[in-house]
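Agenda item 2: zinc ion complex prediction
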Amino acid sequence: MSIASIQSSDELRDLYRELILDHSRKPRHFGKLANATHTAEGINPLCGDKLQVYLQLDTADVIESASFEGSGCAISVASASLMTEIVIGRSRESALDYFAAITAHLTAVKPGKSASVDLEKIRALDGVREFPARVKCATLAWHALHSAIKQQAGPVTTE
Ligand code: ZN
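Presented output:
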C-alpha cells in the first residue's frame, strides 16, 4: 500500500501507528557500536526513557554508522530507530540540521517547514505534537544525537 493510495486521515494514522509499533518492536541499528567515535546518553526521567546513542564519523565528518541501546517507551525507541536510519550517510552538519528542524517541528505549535530537511521521514511522530510529555520521548534520541556530535560531557536530560 502506497501513501498515495491512502484516502482518509484515519488510514494514515493507522499506517503511522503501525510504523511506530514496527520500529519499537524491531528497532533498527540497536546495540552498541564497536567503533563509535561519538556517543551520548539521553535520559527522560518523566517517562523513564534511557538511551545511549553511538555514532561513527569518518575523517570527512560523515556519519558512517549510528546505533543506540537502552530502554524506553515505544515512542522513544521508535524515534531513536528512525533517527539512526535518517542520519546514517549524512554529514555532521546535515545531521545537526535535522536535529534543529525535527525538535522545532515537534515542539512548535504549528508544523514547521524546512528548506534543507525532509520532515516526511518523521511524519509518523507527528501525533505526539498534541502531547507535550510525549514530545520529550520523541525528541530524546535527537537530543542525544546532538550531544554526541557536539561531544558534550555527561548525559543529556529532558528535565
Ligand atoms: Zn517515553
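Discussion summary: The chain is about 40% helix and 15% strand.
Owner for follow-up: CH.
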